[in-house]
Design goal:
The protein is mostly helical. It has one domain. Helices cover about 70% and strands about 0% of the residues. The chain is built from 15 helices and no strands. This is Fucose 4-O-acetylase. It comes from Clostridium frigidicarnis. It holds the Pfam family Acyl_transf_3.
């Protein structure tokens, strides 16, 4: 296995770990707040890390929004299966309208898709038209604007967020996602430092110390990208990056141990899992009152079964649910070509 293949593998593993934390964050558990600290910033960081200078609007739009629409219908269907008494044309129109509006109006992580798409689009425009200094400056300004907006407009408790805080496709979150994406891109030449044992040790130590402070010392920290909640300009940079370094470093070690194929497979199919785990898990929670571990197992395994034995068996379903055309390069091939650093 070449050095580039190893790097792609541990990034797949990292995505696998991250999507597991996304599932946990939607389970009935108090651990959710700790997952919010890093998992969504990490996905934007990794996307920036994998950026390749060949962004094609039509191809990317299809890849992002065709699955978005397909899984929106699946999500609505599962909502009606969970609560059959709510089945009506007016409710279908209401649910579908919320999916079109997306962002804070839609349950789960549907908000992530339009935010990631437009983050990539904006970064691609910047990369093709401006120098590195200007792009980094834009990232800094965007980060500060995101915090100014959150501090001035988002309530101290997300339960107090109202319709006035809802923005089409969560466009306000792009001010925060763009800096994470930019950091990921410019980390590419130095990302090999996560392969060091000392990096793993220090990142574990840092994560344990900060988690202990938050858990035992009543040093409360909260970050939630979907709800535009980021009110600590220093910690909102330090904490996600600390966890990202830990996850990448741990993922690299896992690939060295050779026990990574399952996590790698999960990572490669993280978007399908992202779409399916929450409505399926919620169905079982409402009917059988499952706990967080059961939610994780059910949400993950059911998504993987549907992916492996239904979606991946049909080119049409792969196109509809993953935006993958049989005539196009696989996303893995594209990632391989982008990781030659």
């Amino acid at each position: 296995m070449g050095h580039t293949n190893k790097r792609l593998n541990y990034i797949d593993v990292a995505k696998g770990i991250l999507i597991l934390t996304v599932i946990i964050s939607h389970a009935p558990t108090e651990l959710a707040q700790y997952m919010y600290w890093f998992h969504m910033p990490a996905f934007f960081f990794i996307s920036g890390l994998l950026y390749k200078n060949n962004f094609d609007f039509k191809t990317q739009f299809t890849k992002f929004f065709l699955p978005y629409m397909a899984f929106s219908f699946v999500d609505i269907l599962l909502c009606f299966l969970t609560s059959p008494e709510t089945l009506s044309l007016s409710n279908f129109i209401s649910y579908f309208s919320k999916h079109l509006y997306s962002g804070k109006a839609t349950g789960g992580v549907f908000w992530f898709i339009p935010v990631l798409f437009f983050t990539k689009l904006i970064f691609d425009f910047l990369k093709k038209n401006f120098n590195n200094f200007f792009i980094i400056l834009i990232g800094v300004i965007s980060y500060l604007m995101a915090h100014r907006y959150s501090i001035n407009n988002i309530p101290e408790h997300i339960v107090d967020i109202t319709l006035d805080n809802y923005k089409l496709w969560d466009f306000d979150v792009i001010f925060m996602s763009l800096p994470y994406y930019i950091i990921g891109y410019y980390a590419k030449p130095i990302i090999s430092f996560v392969e060091s044992k000392i990096t793993l040790f220090l990142s574990i130590l840092g994560v344990l110390i900060f988690t202990y402070l938050n858990w035992e010392m009543e040093f409360y920290y909260y970050l939630n990208m979907k709800f535009s909640y980021y009110k600590e300009p220093v910690l909102d940079l330090v904490v996600p990056l600390l966890f990202i370094i830990l996850i990448l470093s741990l993922s690299y070690r896992i690939t060295l141990w050779g026990k990574y194929k399952n996590l790698s497979y999960i990572g490669k199919n993280s978007l399908v899992i992202m779409y399916l785990h929450n409505p399926i898990g919620s169905f079982f929670v409402q009917r059988y009152f499952v706990g967080p571990v059961s939610f994780l197992i059910i949400g993950l395994t059911s998504s993987l079964i549907i992916n492996k034995y239904l979606i991946d068996k049909s080119d049409l379903l792969k196109f509809i649910t993953k935006g993958i055309s049989p005539s196009k390069k696989s996303s893995r091939e594209v990632q391989l070509s982008s990781l030659k650093y």
